[in-house]
Amino acid sequence: VEISGTTVTITCPLTEDSITWQSSGTKGVSEAQKYIIENHDSSPVSVSCSSGAKTYEMYLNAKVCANCAELDALAVTGIISADLLITFGVLILVYYFSKDRKGRASAGAGSRPRGQKMQRPPPVPNPDYEPIRKGQREVYAGLESRGF
Asked: Domain tally for the chain?
């Protein structure tokens, strides 16, 4: 069985010259040992070829499509290998470029040059949340716990 696009070619194993083909459903063209079905619609078909007393029954259940492309095992292996090599190459490039950037200061818009490390002053305390110190309990004396 050979499939090319929507054309299916079936070859009979008999070697005689006068071969008769019989098909259930789809009609095809018989040429000596070959039976050609053009515009096959992927429906199952029973085909038989006979010569004299010998008969071969075949059941064809082939999926065909007009826009398909055939790929052999070597092409598929090459595509997968090339994809893996490109992926690992990009991974290595990203690793080395990101490794070099760790020690540098970025020159972006929000950055400023770093001089000596200056200590930051403590944040300005919010007067609403002052800590209770000894001797200052009268500030908080007016606040009593409420029952919820």
From this structure: 2
Name the token pair of 15.
Answer: 């070697």
Asked whether residue 14 is domain-assigned, the answer is yes
- Give residue-wise pLDDT tens across range 5-45: 888 888 888 877 788 888 887 778 877 788 888 888 888 88
Spatial distance between the Cα atoms of 64 and 39, rounded to a whole number of angstroms: 9
Strand partners, 10: 35
Task: Answer whether 0.70 is exceeded by the pTM.
Answer: no
Q: How far apart are CA 30 and CA 51, in angstroms?
A: 13
What is the extent of the structural domain holding 87? 70-102
The DSSP call for residue 17 is S
* Residues 7 and 37 sit within 8 Å (Cβ to Cβ): yes
Nearest to 6 by CA among 66, 81, 69, 70: 66
> Which residues neighbour 114 within 8 Å (Cβ) at sequence distance 6 or greater?
105
Q: Cα(50)–Cα(18) distance, rounded to whole angstroms?
A: 9
First-to-last CA distance in the chain?
Answer: 86
The DSSP secondary-structure symbol of 125 reads P
